């Protein structure tokens, strides 16, 4: 179940929990790649409650999780408690679902929400800046936007850098190494309306692509599009 459009006005977050011995590498990775990995909160090793949602457990609050071993996806449970380890450091990373209420308020339609789908996500050929043992490509989310509203979408999202900010591209998907916008790597294929163009934002699923390339021994993430919904209002991440 995607959380797109399910919590209007509330900030949503990507989640990754990784062993303490890899946590510094990941923190450095987020610092070097703030566009796809803007950090909203970091929990102490073994901690399971974030200040962003004090009444929720990070092991159970997202609709679905992914369990990774040596870069391989081994399970997709709805509850990650049985997989939890005391050495895991949890990172909550900004999610573009957070700026969707602002887009709608500016008159920008959300085709995936209208169609009851998850947003489309693609692995690009843009390599993130490596950090320690971590390396891999940037993932982007794509939304079909009427061409006349692309500038508005850019301006609205640029004011929210903590949830990925302005797009990284619009128009020709080949500039990002994407061959077919109707065959996403994550999420759902979304149908455009006449006059729409594809617009791409850096995406917090990037850490999952990095896990697949870097192959740490163990990690837990949310399932793409099935986010950790926080108590923070979306406007809290707006600047200016």
From TrEMBL:
Keywords: Lyase
Pfam families assigned: D-Glu_cyclase (PF07286)
Coiled coil: none
Entries under NCBIfam families matching the protein: PRK05463.1
Membership in a protein family: Belongs to the D-glutamate cyclase family.
Protein name, per record: UPF0317 protein
Origin species: Lentzea flava
